[in-house]
Design goal:
15% strand
Amino acid sequence: MSPRLPLVERTRLLARCTSWLLAAGLACVPLGATIGAHEIGTTRVVASLTRDDTYTIDVTTDAGALLGRLELASKRPRSSPASAAEYQRAFAALCGELPHHVAVVFDDVPDEPRADCTVDAPGGVAGDDLSALGVTVTLRGAVPPGAKTFRWRYDLTFASYALTMKAPGPQAAETIWLEGGEESRPVVLARVAAPPSRAAVARTYLGLGFTHIVPGGLDHILFVLGIFLLSGRLRPILWQVSAFTLAHSMTLGLTLYGVIALPSSIVEPMIAMSIVYVAVENLVTSELKPWRVALVFGFGLLHGMGFAGVLREMALPRSEILTGLVAFNAGVEAGQLTVILSAFLAVGVWARRSDSYRRLIVVPGSAAIALTGLLWTMQRLGL
């Protein structure tokens, strides 16, 4: 019977296996595949109640993703439309399937809505980039007389999305966040106009900030891991994380208030390139250089604009913008610290005592992160 390995050796073996599994898993992704990165905000649902007891529900989402899921659900062969017009024709044939993938329920009585699908007009996206093409599904129906509650479910997305309820008149909207195919809680229709409390706003956006990183923000997770991997020592990590936090906090607020703005077609590829840079630098140096902190600060400015893009999609009451902004940013920081703490517990506890940390952890991990970032860059540039 073989002797039991010491704790240090067992931890080292576990870390080695984890690192190589990460490298193998990321490196083996097919080049044509799209790896999801903070999909939050891609889908938006707005339910509007009218004075004549009818409702309209607009589901706005990515055209390519929705078409693919509809074709899969209806067991049709996967198509590859080459223009907005071809997308419109494909949706015209499949739009009737949409009511089977939603639940519109008033007082526990389901209603089957009528559906219309409208694809973005040709030229409506920069450079006619079909990867950025959107589609709006409009569902219409009647509200039963005397209905008191409303529930909603949509099973054609896997990411977090906002359901915004609007009542007739100059009242505030109510926003509920749902995960994928989750069914909403019952919304009391007479209370749709009641604005959420400050504490409720803070709780909601704190949770959204956290889940935007863990588990929803794989690109931000890989950037933070790239920061961590440079050194197993605490000081280099703190210098970089502090610069990154300061930077993205600045642009998160400035972008949200409209002081600065860059289109997502520029911000998203540059975020992907920042991941590549940090990972590649890990491969060529093992010490924190002064320019690394400055570049991490610059990359943080970009990531902050990405976070702001998410917040802009939220129906946040104007009186609570600052509360939501602070809470969301706090949630983001909590998510980043969770990633760093998890990485430290997995490999950092023995990094100082191991001469093979760089060979077994830093090199394969950084190579996998760089490859993934490069793939994202190509996808976001439409290459």
